[in-house]
Amino acid sequence: MKTLPSTGPAAPAAAAAPAPSARHAEGVSNDEFRAALSRLSAGVVLLTAREAPLAPDGPAGEDAGMTATAFMSVSLDPPLVLVSLRNGSRMDDLLDEQPLWAISILAESQSHIAGRFAMKGRISDRLLFEDIPYVRGERTDAPLVGGALATLECRTERRVPAGDHTLVIGRVLTADLPSAEGGPLMYFKGRYRTLG
User: Fold this and answer.
1) Which of the chain's termini has less CB crowding within 10 Å, N or C?
2) C-alpha angle 180/183/186, rounded to 5°?
3) SS3 33
4) pLDDT tens, 159-186?
5) Closest Cα to residue 141, out of 62, 28, 81, 56?
6) Class of residue 169 by CB neighbours under 10 A (exposed 0-12, middle 13-18, buried 19+)
């Protein structure tokens, strides 16, 4: 794997999580858990959604985006996927109100996009999307990143509380392959990487 520089996905909020060296009743510490799971490589996606209008005939709200590595296929029939969101995060709050969202599976050349939407203390989402090519999903109105290996438009079917995260299960409404070139962007041992 080739390593790409990155800030990496945003870590869970310190106030909501136990201290890094805290041991849980089961005996594992936060640091041990993080270190072990950092050895699991994961694909990198950009989760996007557009805020619903405040009024039925009003304008839509702003776009929002979040880098995610905790994303997976759940079912073929019906087509379902799952993404894990930190409780109280902007995207968790948004998808609690907005059932329509999208996933762009990022290509190895898109680590700058992943890093941009993962950084702490970042600027507004409106500015983050400013120079990224994207189209709007026909079913969700969410941004679908140009050059992504694949894009999915989804509708939330179920939200499952899971510790300090919420698992959002979505039904896939559309699936497209905008770019057949290049390999996937991966996340391994705290850094963005590529295959090869």
Assistant:
1) C
2) 140
3) helix
4) 999 999 999 999 999 999 987 678 999 8
5) 62
6) middle
